[in-house]
Design brief:
Blueprint: H1 17-21, E1 24-27, E2 30-34, H2 35-42, H3 46-55, E3 65-67, H4 70-80, E4 95-98, H5 99-108, H6 112-172
Antiparallel strand pairs: 1-2, 2-4, 3-4
Helix pairs in contact: 2-3, 5-6
């Protein structure tokens, strides 16, 4: 394993953190991974992954694992190009694992590959959390700048209207050129 987390050499295919991050989706307000993506990373069949989970159901409460409904599956299918049922695709809606569910998988799947992949996946979840936290900080700073900009815009309007009034007052008073004859 390389120390800077660029790639894992002990795995059959080099897996980058970005490769794992692209397989994390936001569904029902939770960051999750599809059962088929996890099975691919662990290099096992999806059905074997689900069988292992079902044999250990008590370890996977609803905040660790849930099954997608039809609408979510259809929406996800259009986003990531999962093949349709009639074209050799899945017959059942997929299960998705939250970060806690992925962590629990390491205790259910007892292989060196599963341990290595769980380390990668946990790092990807942590990195996403950091990115989201940084984006929240940036969003807050942008809001503060917008508030300041609105105040500046108000002040500029006041200055502009005051200058316009002063300019209008100055143009209404015409200086008389020449001299005035007194009729007396």
């Amino acid at each position: 394993m390389k120390k800077d987390n660029k790639f894992e050499t002990s795995l059959i295919l080099p897996i980058t953190p970005e490769f794992v991050e692209r397989r994390i989706y936001l569904i029902r307000g939770s960051k999750v991974m599809l059962d088929s993506d996890l099975a691919g990373l662990y290099q096992i069949e999806t059905r074997l992954l689900i069988q292992a989970v079902k044999r250990n159901e008590s370890r996977f409460p609803s905040d660790f694992l849930f099954k997608l409904n039809q609408n979510e599956a259809i929406s996800l299918r259009s986003q990531i190009e999962i093949s349709k049922k009639g074209r050799g695709g899945r017959r059942y809606t997929p299960y998705v694992f939250t970060e806690l569910g992925v962590a629990m998988l390491s205790s259910v799947l007892n292989s060196e590959r599963a341990v290595q992949m769980n380390i990668y996946i946990m790092r990807a979840f942590v990195k996403l959390r950091q990115i989201l936290a940084n984006n929240a900080d940036i969003a807050q700073k942008i809001k503060e700048l917008e508030r300041g900009q609105k105040k500046h815009a108000e002040h500029i309007l006041i200055i502009s209207s005051t200058l316009k009034k002063l300019m209008d007052e100055g143009t209404n008073q015409k200086d008389v050129i020449g001299f005035v004859i007194d009729p007396d």
